[in-house]
């Protein structure tokens, strides 16, 4: 202490000397552990961030209804002029005789014949089914699938008109009707062939 009673501050050399002396001295009572003043306090944990609100839901648009395909035109018979010509003895462009064939073979032969007739540019062809009879042997579905039919008289006569009306043949067949007497009458059909589209 100086004359005025104030505590004199130590020089840096004196601090170093004092630290060296006290380093080898064991204290009678250990001092409580205090945190080092040089270490900064641990940062307080930040409060959890509030979740962001979800984006507003977009309005759901109802699906756009696709327009219904236009109805297929009905199958039509021969034009009156063509019918008169055939009645007077004019010949058809081609003919197919299905006599003696099974249903499966007749169906396959008929389809091939019709596509070939269209490719050849024919207008009217003759399909001979045989007269047979109209005894009910089973049921026919519109798609041309036969259920309960037995091979025999009248089967092809009933089946061929349904085969001609199958959806995928509408691009080939314009219509059909019973043939005139000169071409077999009830045992044959005139079939009108649709012109094949050319170009795009």
Structure, described:
It contains 4 helices and 6 strands. With 200 residues, the protein is of the alpha+beta class. It has a domain at 99-193: Ribosomal Protein S8, Chain: A, domain 1. The protein has a 4-stranded mixed sheet, with helices on one face. Strands 3-4 form a two-stranded antiparallel ribbon.
What's the number of extended β-strand segments? 6
- CATH architecture assignment name of the domain at 99-193: 2-Layer Sandwich
* Contiguous helical run count: 4
What integer is the average pLDDT? 76
CATH class division of the domain at 99-193 = Alpha Beta
User: What form results from the Cα inertia axes?
Assistant: rod-shaped
Main features:
about 200 residues, alpha+beta, Ribosomal Protein S8, Chain: A, domain 1, 4-stranded mixed beta sheet, about 10% strand, rod-shaped
